[in-house]
Amino acid sequence: MQIFTDKEQITEVIDAFKAHQLTIGFVPTMGALHKGHLALVEEALANNQKVFVSVFVNPTQFNNSKDLEKYPRTLENDIKLLESISKDILVFAPTVEVIYHGNTVSQSFDFDGLEHEMEGKFRQGHFDGVGTVVKRLFDIIRPDNAYFGEKDFQQLQIIKKLVSKYKMPVHVVGCKIHREKNGLAMSSRNTRLTDKQKEAAAFIYKTLKAAKIQFGTKSADKVTSWVSSQFESHDVLKLEYFIIADIDTLKPLKRKAKNKKYRAFIAVYAGEIRLIDNIALN
Ligand code: PAF
């Protein structure tokens, strides 16, 4: 397995791949890899001649310094996991200096309002940080196809917008959410949950599934109130938001329209760990 930490070496290798017209698949990650990430890598391996995985905990997308500090960093184990799938994967694990050149700040983006909804409201500056790092990584790796999980559905829509606004020749592929046996969406943050929190967190997906059924006959407002009431007296989980939104604009649904697609989005705290999830409603 080849592991790159600086831009010069990886650029040489990518130049050679491009000269031979090899297709490049790319899976950007912040490490602490789990089965959800590995599924993205499998998808990339199945559809590209070369596959890069980046492992980089991007400081500018954290609005909470404690979260950044506690974010799991497990590069050795990540490499072992990737090797267990294929020795041909190329890993890019740059330092903050390589990506930010001593100036660890985000560029400001206009994602046509997608950045102001949900996660954008509760995590100020988060999507500027994501946009900055993904744009820089795309400029370095120059992928044909890039793979992102639907757990971060808002991020996925924003990256599609980034690519279209900057006319980047990258096909952004969204991949379905992978779940633990109890339904909890896989996330690197899950490793920080206690057993009790993990068990309790099954309630998130259970509630999303029930909300989906209710959405068949009830208004978005009614479903939203019902979900809030379910969390009111929960002894482990604290609801931050539950929103039913149009999948294209990410704006909260006011009145259902026939030709529109909707998703329910949720953010919940288990102690100090923030968990997000979502479900397609129609
Ligand atoms: O989804 C993530 O892990 C991150 O937001 C990403 C896309 C790797 C950018 O740092």
Describe what this molecule looks like in 3D:
This protein has 282 residues and is of the alpha/beta class. The chain has two domains: 2-175, Rossmann fold (3-Layer(aba) Sandwich); 188-280, Pantoate--beta-alanine Ligase, Chain: A,domain 2 (2-Layer Sandwich). The chain contains eleven helices and nine strands. The strands form two sheets. The protein has a six-stranded parallel beta sheet, sandwiched between helices. Strands 7-8-9 form a three-stranded antiparallel beta sheet. It starts with a strand and ends with a strand. Pantoate binds at residues 28-30, 58, 61, 130, 133-134, 152, 155.
Essential attributes:
282 residues; binds pantoate; Rossmann fold; 6-stranded parallel sheet; alpha/beta; Pantoate--beta-alanine Ligase, Chain: A,domain 2
Can you summarize this structure?
The chain is built from 11 helices and 9 strands. It is an alpha/beta fold and 282 residues long. The protein folds into 2 domains: 2-175, Rossmann fold; 188-280, Pantoate--beta-alanine Ligase, Chain: A,domain 2, CATH 3.30.1300.10.
Instruction: Predict the CATH topology of the largest domain.
Output: Rossmann fold
Task: Outline the biggest β-sheet.
Answer: 6 strands, parallel
Query: What is the spatial order of strands in the main beta sheet?
Result: 1-4-3-2-5-6
Along the chain, the helix and strand elements come as EHEHEHHEHHHEHEHHHEEE
